[in-house]
Write a sequence for this structure.
């Protein structure tokens, strides 16, 4: 990869160790994802809380746009963490049917660290999860739209 949005790290596989090269999201990469998401949120006139985490769910970058709901700060981070750790978009079960029991069970089982609310997307490069983006502050459809803008920006820069 010739750009500075992600870098390869890890030990080469020498036949003895079971390691592989891993791609990591850089701060510059997180900033590019955040900028695209923030621009989309401004474009649809929905102030958002936007969180970018690494592949382990650890915060890299966060922005609370002017006018964004204060109550959605932790929700955005939880969505980003969920998408990164589960390696999939946040939302209802695969059957696409919201379930109060599943949603509460996931939150309770993980001490409120994971969620089924829509608006979290994994950040993928070369079929590898390098992080997650979580957006909260508007209707779930807007949250997903804004998060997708961040994902699309990463795809443009990493190809």
């Amino acid at each position: 990869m010739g750009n500075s949005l992600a870098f390869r790290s890890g030990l080469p596989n020498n036949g003895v160790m079971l390691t592989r090269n891993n791609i990591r999201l850089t701060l510059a990469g997180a900033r590019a994802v955040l900028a695209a998401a923030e621009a989309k949120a401004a474009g649809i006139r929905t102030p958002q809380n936007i969180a970018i985490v690494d592949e382990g769910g650890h915060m890299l970058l966060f922005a609370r746009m002017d006018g964004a709901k204060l109550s959605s700060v932790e929700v955005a981070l939880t969505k980003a963490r969920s998408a990164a750790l589960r390696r999939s978009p946040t939302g209802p079960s695969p059957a696409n049917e919201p379930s109060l029991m599943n949603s509460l069970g996931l939150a309770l089982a993980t001490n409120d660290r994971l969620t089924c609310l829509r608006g979290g997307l994994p950040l993928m490069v070369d079929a590898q999860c390098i992080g997650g983006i979580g957006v909260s502050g508007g209707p779930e459809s807007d949250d997903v739209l804004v998060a997708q803008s961040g994902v699309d920006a990463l795809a443009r820069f990493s190809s």
In short: The longest helix spans residues 140-158. The helical segments are 27-43, 73-86, 100-109, 140-158. The chain has a mean pLDDT of 86.
